[in-house]
Amino acid sequence: MAWDFETDPEYQKKLDWVDAFVREECEPLDLAFPGRQFEPLDDTLRKIVNPLKEEVRRQGLWATHLGPELGGQGFGQLKLALLNEILGRSQWAPIVFGCQAPDTGNAEIIAHFGTPEQKEKYLQPLLDGEIFSCYSMTEPQGGADPTQFTCRAVKEGDQWVINGWKYFSSNAKTASFFIVMVVTNPDVSPYRGMSMFLVPADTPGINIVRNVGLFGEPINEGAHALVHYEDVRVPESALLGGEGQAFAIAQTRLGGGRIHHAMRTIGLAKKALDMMCERALSRRTAGSLLAEKQFVQGMIADSYAQLMQFRLFVLYTAWEIDKYQDYKRVRKDIATAKIIMPTVLHDIAWRAMQIHGALGTTNEMPFFQMIHGAGVMGLADGPTEVHKMTVAKQVLRDHRPHDGMWPSEWLPAKQEAARARYAQYLEHEVGNL
Ligand SMILES: Cc1cc2nc3c(=O)[nH]c(=O)nc-3n(C[C@H](O)[C@H](O)[C@H](O)COP(=O)(O)OP(=O)(O)OC[C@H]3O[C@@H](n4cnc5c(N)ncnc54)[C@H](O)[C@@H]3O)c2cc1C
Known about the structure:
Layout: H1 9-32, H2 43-58, H3 77-87, H4 93-96, H5 103-113, H6 116-127, E1 133-136, E2 152-156, E3 159-170, E4 177-183, H7 190-193, E5 194-200, E6 206-212, E7 224-235, E8 239-240, H8 246-282, E9 284-285, E10 288-289, H9 294-324, H10 331-355, H11 357-361, H12 367-377, H13 384-397, H14 411-421, H15 423-432
Parallel strand pairs: 1-4
Antiparallel strand pairs: 2-3, 3-7, 4-5, 5-8, 6-7, 9-10
Helix pairs in contact: 1-3, 3-8, 3-9, 5-6, 5-8, 8-9, 8-10, 9-10, 10-12, 10-13
Bound molecules: flavin-adenine dinucleotide (FAD).
Flavin-adenine dinucleotide (FAD) binds near residues 102, 136, 137 and 376.
């Protein structure tokens, strides 16, 4: 009987340390240096942030998403989930712990598919927290559907020449290198005709046309770039994995990235629930505390129920990844966690905002940021609708059609069969009447 919902006491001690550290050391960075977590550290920030990273290393909690051979701790996904659900409270915390998106996913694919030279050049500094990376896949005309991608690399001598557009390439402006997914063979199925390249950010021809901002950020000062690749020349050695391997690599990357977002989202939703409860216990109106009003109790109970279902499902999915070591095999559940995530965060943050009254809607409370974050979670790494199709297809694989006019569970037929089976006893019963 191996089901177990208890955290090993030694690791729990570490998690307790993380909880206090994130509240005391990382959350203040969110307020004092908002939105600067993906910028290279200047002298001031280096003085503040490097000792925190050192402390995390001393605790053996640096870059826990990768195995020891790659400079991580090799904790696996379940332990990472328990850690990430705490880090999710703060924007700076993943940076301080060396496990921030999109760098974790990027590090993972270089670790899996990179040559020793590529690992030395890109992976090591990424793991050391010295540089940032950019995953450049989405295109303006073909976001959720990679079969529409047109950004192209053509072989010229011993070089590949990249031309085309990419959109929403997060952190392009601060990244040291880009992982670019491009068409290398338009004559075969897109699933075999695309490849990935590792491209240093200072390669001539990489033009950041716009730095698209999210809601609340100044226009053109955001982190999600529209990039025009114009005659960008890279050597053959820039190819990540084999030619035509981009789809398989993308699945590895996005599988990990999606579940890591879900882990962090638990932390953010929990923060909203904590704030909701604190307010309900502190605010008195119409003769009683908000916490004593049944509508408010309903909101708290609904939020707790949603959060717990989500949390247990994410932990279960993380456990599955550790068990099977195969993202493809766990694809259905990763997609399911991805589907649930925006709704859980949206609903809990929305209720927390409502319970805070007018104050909840202001820029003096973080609820709208969370609600906007829920919207982002429904799109980044693929829209909810596409993931629903994935889940439905996988669920349907375990089912078969039934011949005939009536479904297999049609009661009259089942009842007739059951009665025929027990006819002897049923006749006896009738005879006894
Ligand atoms: C904050 C943020 C960061 C991101 N970072 C990156 C990054 O670093 N690198 C990168 O490459 N990309 C990144 N993306 C892009 C992200 O992967 C795309 O937004 C996503 O794939 C959807 O593409 P799209 O926005 O063009 O939407 P579209 O493809 O235009 O889809 C729009 C809507 O149409 C519907 N729809 C689409 N397809 C289907 C379908 N098959 N069936 C039913 N309905 C459908 C859905 O409602 C969907 O929301 C990021 C996005 C966000 C929001």
